[in-house]
Amino acid sequence: MTAKVIDGRKIAKNILENVAKDIKYIKSNYQIKPNITTIIIGSNPESDLYLRLRDKACNEVGIISSHLNLAEDVSEQKVIDSINELNIDEKVHGIFVQFPLPKHLAIDKIINTIDPSKDVEGFTSHNMGCMLLGEEYIIPCTPLAVLKILENEKYDVKGKDIVIVNHSNIVGKPLTALLLNRNASVSVCHIFTKNLKQYTSNAEVLITGAGVPKLITVDLVKKDAFVIDVGIVKKEDRVCGDVDFESVKDIASKITPVPGGVGPVTVACSLENMTKTINNCID
Amino acid sequence: MTAKVIDGRKIAKNILENVAKDIKYIKSNYQIKPNITTIIIGSNPESDLYLRLRDKACNEVGIISSHLNLAEDVSEQKVIDSINELNIDEKVHGIFVQFPLPKHLAIDKIINTIDPSKDVEGFTSHNMGCMLLGEEYIIPCTPLAVLKILENEKYDVKGKDIVIVNHSNIVGKPLTALLLNRNASVSVCHIFTKNLKQYTSNAEVLITGAGVPKLITVDLVKKDAFVIDVGIVKKEDRVCGDVDFESVKDIASKITPVPGGVGPVTVACSLENMTKTINNCID
Fold first, then answer.
1. Considering only alpha carbons, which residue of chain A is nearest residue B125?
2. Is residue B44 scored above 90 in pLDDT?
3. Predicted confidence (pLDDT) per residue in B102-141, tens digit
4. Residue A145 has what pLDDT?
């Protein structure tokens, strides 16, 4: 049997339709022009692509996506001052800081300058801590996209054996907290894991985001697993994930492709988060 | 071979000696009387025991441990007002809220009223979030005690297969983040885990805090595992943990007993955290 291939673009479309409705409601009931501002420091071709996709989606649902461009060698204080100005600017309803940042800037200091109520990505310590403690409100977009994909399949994670291959601050660690909040049994693997197969071969749900093409071959996957590929690697002109899709799809029950899987859902989740920060500004 | 039995009281003694030195230094260099205030709402025999142990330890190192007793049926606003008063009181250098709280009070709202710089237990969303993101400063006492025990044995967790049986906000979830920050492979089990043995039998380090006596029998433990028992259950006049100590000590390489294992180290860690909040007030 071949796995059901999850259509990330369709899930994204549904999310964006709801976002568009919410934005329309906000505009017709409050005298505001929803505006999200992204601070972009220097330039990075990979994040530029993501930014273009987000700007396009914002335009479609009626959110103004402003850019604040700062030079590659900007001082940390200048970035912090800029964020503080956006925090108190009533015309700005959400703030992004585009990653990756130049190395001379302290990420945590910069992110924690963002007012948590305008923190579209849920990366401030306050929002992360709330999430860890089960008070979920603004959740980082990629983990949120994974939850949306599971929910869309009506997949209840409670008691399920789930393996995450990624332990970063923006994917693996928040996703672990979110799945523990839902009473899944969660294992987290990464580059220092000695025997990846020992973990993945027992996974009813396998979520991988290592950024290593074909890391997940068919022999690592449990029969009938739900495989969610968060990996994004550019190979020549193409984008691919961690999973050896062609072979794994024959053993998995459900699988997300790359492209067209987690990616578009992540962009849509980013816009759903924007509606939350916009609502915070109204309340 | 029989496991090395970890002497928690000895580890605690070392920590407390350092705390005493720090407090002595602070007192002789700054004109302050270190004072930690615990808000106690109603009464609870189990938490009273822990409180007595902490008060005794505070007394020994020269920290004043004040109690603010509030009635069992106190209003949430009154608790919040009391915390806000302590936040701005320059004579108070750290704040505890004694758990468990009466059911009519919202834990998260109350805890997040505490100024993170005076948050001795590291339970505020801000401090939890910082920890999740790898900016560890004030860490909840029980997870910190586990780290101290590992460090005391010079046990490097990087790449190790670690299983935690507990997914609570104050033990399992923060401990998972701390161990991921140190690049361990971490699995988290709990009451909804279908096959506990499938996890524990591969654990090089097994940390258990289910509160179920003899949950961890010898057949669940990997040979030469490091077994850390965070469980505390009162059985008649005795205190016991999760681990069937007598049988498991014959297969483990290291094991913490109950009592005399994690418990005293947790109390000592609580005092170490106090020195951090006291220092925050000086800076």
1. A129
2. no
3. 999 999 999 999 999 999 999 999 999 999 999 999 999 9
4. 98
Are residues B130 and A125, on separate chains, in Cβ contact within 8 Å? yes
- How many percent of chain A have pLDDT more than 70? 100
Yes or no: say if A199 and A205 are a contact pair by the CB < 8 Å rule: no
Closest-CA residue to A123 (of A108, A136, A135) = A108
pLDDT at B45: 76
In 3D space, the residue among A65, A63, A64 whose CA is nearest the CA of residue A22 turns out to be A63
Q: What is the pLDDT of residues A187-223, one digit of tens each?
A: 999 999 999 999 999 999 999 999 999 999 999 999 9
Instruction: Check: CB of residue B15 under 8 Å from CB of residue B263.
Output: no
CA atoms of A139 and A119, how far apart (whole Å): 10
Q: Which of A124, A125, A187 sits opposite B187 (nearest CB)?
A: A187
Residue A143 forms contact with B (CB below 8 Å): no
The answer to whether A182 and A213 are in contact (CB under 8 A) is no
Q: Which of B154, B153, B145 is nearest to B268 (CA)?
A: B145
Judge whether B179 and B206 are in contact, CB under 8 Å.
no
* H or E element in which residue B39 lies: strand B35-41
Q: Is residue B78 helix, strand or coil?
A: helix
Q: What count of residues does chain A have?
A: 283
Provide the β-strand partners of residue B64.
Answer: B35
Of B127, B180, B202, the CB nearest to A173: B180
The stretch B163-190 carries a mean pLDDT of 98
**Other residues' Cβ atoms within 10 Å of the Cβ of residue B168:** 16
What b/e string do you get for B143-160 counting C-beta neighbours within 10 Å, with b at 16 or more?
Answer: bbbbbbbbebeeeebebb
CA distance B118 to chain A (A): 16
Q: Kindly report the three-state secondary structure assignment for every residue of A175-187.
A: HHHHHHHCCCEEE
Other beta carbons within 10 angstroms of residue B44's beta carbon come to 17
The DSSP-derived string for chain A is -PPEEP-HHHHHHHHHHHHHHHHHHHHHHSS---EEEEEEES--HHHHHHHHHHHHHHHHHT-EEEEEEE-TT--HHHHHHHHHHHHH-TT--EEEEPSSPPTTS-HHHHHTTS-GGGBTT--SHHHHHHHHTT--SS--HHHHHHHHHHHHTT---TT-EEEEE---TTTHHHHHHHHHHTT-EEEEE-TT-S-HHHHHTT-SEEEE----TT-B-GGGS-TT-EEEE---EEETTEEE-SB-HHHHTTT-SEE--SSSSHHHHHHHHHHHHHHHHHHHHH-
Chain A: residue whose CA lies nearest to B163: A187
Q: Answer for the pair A256, A18: CB distance below 8 angstroms, yes or no.
A: no
Tell if the CB–CB gap between A185 and B186 is shorter than 8 Å: no
| Residue from A139, A167, A199 whose CB has the most chain B CBs within 10 Å, to mutate | A167
Q: Nearest to residue B34, comparing CAs of B67, B58, B55, B69? A: B58
B135–A108 C-beta distance less than 8 A:
yes
Q: Are A173 and B177 an interchain contact pair (Cβ–Cβ within 8 Å)?
A: yes
- Domains of chain A, CATH where assigned: 31-117 (3.40.50.10860), 141-263 (3.40.50.720)
